[in-house]
Design brief:
Distance between the termini: 55 Å
Helix content: 10-25%
Number of helices: 2
Strand order of the largest sheet: 1-8-3-6
Oligomer: single chain
Order of helices and strands: HEEEEEHEEE
Radius of gyration: 23 Å
Length: 150
């Protein structure tokens, strides 16, 4: 009987101390600045060709943002392929995202970076390149891009 009382007392104590102030935190919320679902681009080629494509995402106002969250789905089987997001400053491309290599491109689904604190046109560039030449065809595809800020 004494063991049951002690067990109940411990349970009540854990319950009361576990319900302190501000114990539940809400997840960070992000505002969507750009979203395009579906296939954005894909490239196929052999090792003898390095192919790069780019397109304008949109003019995005990130002046008041602290963090930028970039979500995308990509796949490549070429070892030095890349996915980049950049803006142009004084005729020079400035990368805010540079994911390179088959492992990084294929496995990165979401990344959070510091905001560049600008309002400019943002571009996306994908590149297909392989360091080995076996005669096989290599591929890169990019889909479901979402850029949001906090």
């Amino acid at each position: 009987m004494k063991k049951i009382f002690v067990l109940m007392l411990l349970t009540a104590g854990l319950y009361l101390t576990g319900c302190g102030k501000n114990m539940v935190t809400s997840p960070d919320t992000y505002t969507v600045a750009y979203q395009k679902d579906g296939l954005l681009d894909s490239i196929s080629g052999t090792c003898s060709v390095i192919q790069t494509r780019w397109f304008l995402i949109d003019t995005l106002d990130m002046r008041n943002a602290n963090k930028i969250k970039i979500d995308f789905d990509a796949f490549t089987d070429a070892d030095i392929s890349f996915v980049q997001i950049y803006h142009v400053d004084s005729d020079v491309g400035v990368n805010i995202l540079d994911v390179t290599g088959s492992n990084q491109v294929s496995n990165t689904k979401s990344i959070i970076i510091d905001s560049p604190k600008i309002k400019k046109g943002f571009y996306m560039r994908i590149g297909l390149s392989s360091s080995v030449c076996t005669g096989q065809q290599f591929n890169i595809k990019l889909r479901d891009l979402k850029i949001s800020y906090q």
